[in-house]
Structure formats: C-alpha cells, structure tokens
Amino acid sequence: MISGFDIHVNYAKVVKAVSYLRTPGCLFVSTNTDSRSMHGANCVLPGNVIVTHYSIYLLVLFNG
Fold first, then answer.
1. Of 52, 61, 39, which Cα lies nearest the Cα of 6?
2. What's the maximum distance between 2 C-alpha atoms anywhere in the chain?
3. CA-derived radius of gyration, the chain
4. Which 3 state secondary structure label does DSSP give 3?
5. Confidence check: pLDDT of 42 > 70
C-alpha cells in the first residue's frame, strides 16, 4: 500500500486502506512524511505525516 498526500481522504479510502493493510505480506510505503507544508509566507498546512500516522494506527489496530 502506498500512502501519499491526499486532501480528499474519506471513509471509502480508509476502508480500502484497511483491506490492503490486512493482506498478509502487504508492503506499506509512505511517499512523504513531512509534518507541515508551506503555502506562501504565512500559510502553514498539516503535511502528509497525518495520513502516514493514521495508516500506521490502522495497521496496528486491525492486525494486533
């Protein structure tokens, strides 16, 4: 499973991710683990680390 930046994360995508993460031998790859993303001089947004950490949380939650 590849985790990348996605501003349109939704329930359907989470369900799909969980099904992939439950597959034996599934390789989890995160494309970027930045904690924030700069958009202009004064605009800082959360980075992909949110999706990465949530995916790891799901992996642990559903696989013990």
1. 52
2. 44
3. 13
4. strand
5. yes
